[in-house]
Here is the input.
Amino acid sequence: MSTPQDDGPDWIDDTKAELSGMAKEGMKHPSTKPVLTGAAIGAVAGAILPVISLPLGLAAGAGIAFYNRIKK
Here is the structure.
């Protein structure tokens, strides 16, 4: 039986660290503004597109922007 190997960074720890930093530093954190921008773009898309609701668009936009920040 082979053992699983860790080929990349632990994304759960990266996510926790990023969220913690954003919560503590607020707008001073480098990830806050891009995530809020993604949320705004998603909210606008949710308001325009009939299939997507405003809250779903906001959450999706913020999630995509946040993912793009932590995968670097």
